Amino acid sequence: MTELDALDARLLLLLSDEPRLGVLECSRRLGVARGTVQARMDRLERRGVLGGFPPEVDLAAIGYGLTAFAVLEIAQGRRVEVAARLAAIDEVCEVHATTGEGDLLVRMVARSNADLQRVIDEVVDVRWVRRTSTSIALSTPVPPRVRPLLERVATDAGTDPIPR
Amino acid sequence: MTELDALDARLLLLLSDEPRLGVLECSRRLGVARGTVQARMDRLERRGVLGGFPPEVDLAAIGYGLTAFAVLEIAQGRRVEVAARLAAIDEVCEVHATTGEGDLLVRMVARSNADLQRVIDEVVDVRWVRRTSTSIALSTPVPPRVRPLLERVATDAGTDPIPR
DNA sequence: GATTCACTGGGCAGATCGTCCAGTGTGGCG
DNA sequence: CGCCACACTGGACGATCTGCCCAGTGAATC
């Protein structure tokens, strides 16, 4: 319920930039007491805002240099089953259920074109998948990020002109 | 040798499960010397496989509960310009350039339907954007993950089973 | 046989961690 | 107006971990 305050946002930003920073360093950089940082982090975790610090693994660096997206159209009412089967494919890294033209949006990776072919085939062959449309990711001009939103909170602080 | 060996994979898996683990704990769990873990981590970082430990921020927990995807068709040769303008929109969290029907795949978040409307308008109004097709994410059956691929390496490549 | 390399196991000083605690605003409320 | 709950400060404690060093072992390479 409680809004994120500016200190929370600054803390998250700081951690985004230098995730290895310890609590002590954070407190120094933010200009607050160590206990405060500790309390804020605990609270953020308890609220579910800060999920943890998962290691960032670069798939490209371990051979999976290709990324592709597939939009799947599936049989009515089979979303759960299809999602489960997609989840069983190692190369499927993300699935969203969506409104609009397709029903599922799938992100997958592969080692080579031939490998991608195999993965796509595997996805397409999933039962109840009616129609698919796949695209290969050529580049990623904006990699996954949350920074801008945090920055807004960190500076704006109180005011909240955005509808809820 | 770009290949990841079984120990590397097990280390990454371990860190995926419990990112806060220190080097010492890792060495204990993996059954190797501390120096070994330290060396492996350094090597993984130097190779770019392990990017770091960015904090995982749950946007839904800070009010941005809606996620939407947009496929943009843009004017020939304007990819860079369009991407730059998209990057300037805070709510745009990810952009990929793709082959296929669309040219750009955009992921964005918003606080409410009205807010989403505003964000979409902002994206659509970007110059050189010809046609767009947006979908709202209703759920995420498979959240972003790399685990299955690591597991494959951890078992395939080595003789060791997965640690306790 | 000699060399290189990764791993082991140990030891060191210094930094950090989790956890306490008293003291200081600051706000809400009877 | 006093009282209380709450958050932050600044300091302290011992336990733990870190970064770094080193000698020794085994395997693979030259």
From TrEMBL, chains A, B:
Give the HTH asnC-type domain ranges.
4-65
| This protein's UniProt keywords | DNA-binding, Transcription, Transcription regulation
A single Pfam family it belongs to is HTH_AsnC-type
Q: Which domain of life is it from?
A: Bacteria
Q: Give the GO cellular component terms, alphabetically.
A: cytosol
UniProt-recorded Gene Ontology molecular function terms: sequence-specific DNA binding
**Per the UniProt entry, what are the Gene Ontology biological process annotations, in alphabetical order?**
response to amino acid
Name used for this protein in its record: AsnC family transcriptional regulator
Q: Which organism is it from?
A: Actinophytocola xinjiangensis
